[in-house]
Amino acid sequence: MERQNPFSKCKECVFFPDKPLGDKSNTRYKTDLDRVEALKYSGFPTEVAIKIVEMTYIYFDCDFCDNVVCKYHRDKMFYYGRYGGHIVCSDGCYYEDSV
To answer: Quick check: 20 and 29 in contact, CB under 8 A?
Structure first.
């Protein structure tokens, strides 16, 4: 079962707690955890380290609703040519509005 990445507001940023952190599907979540640990090791309090990692994300509004998508997932959509150049969240609103 997938869960929302707690460091990101992007609808596409998820991780799988039932899989190992080293699994390919958990790469972005593990990277965020590693960043938090590195900041804590550098002397930052946990809360500040988490906030810094949260601030590394750049967001874009979905073209069809109020949800947001991070830069990584927006670029991935554009790379694969999905959704006709629209920025779309994982709620499927592109298909609802295009019908």
So the answer is: no
Residue 49 pLDDT greater than 70, yes or no? yes
Q: Biggest alpha carbon distance in the chain?
A: 53
Cα 94 → chain centroid: 19
Cα distance between residue 6 and residue 14, in whole Å: 9
* DSSP letter (8 states) at residue 15: E
Backbone angles phi, psi at 55, to 5 degrees: -75, -5
Intra-chain end-to-end CA distance of the chain, in Å: 30
What mean pLDDT is predicted for residues 45-52? 97
pLDDT of residue 99: 42
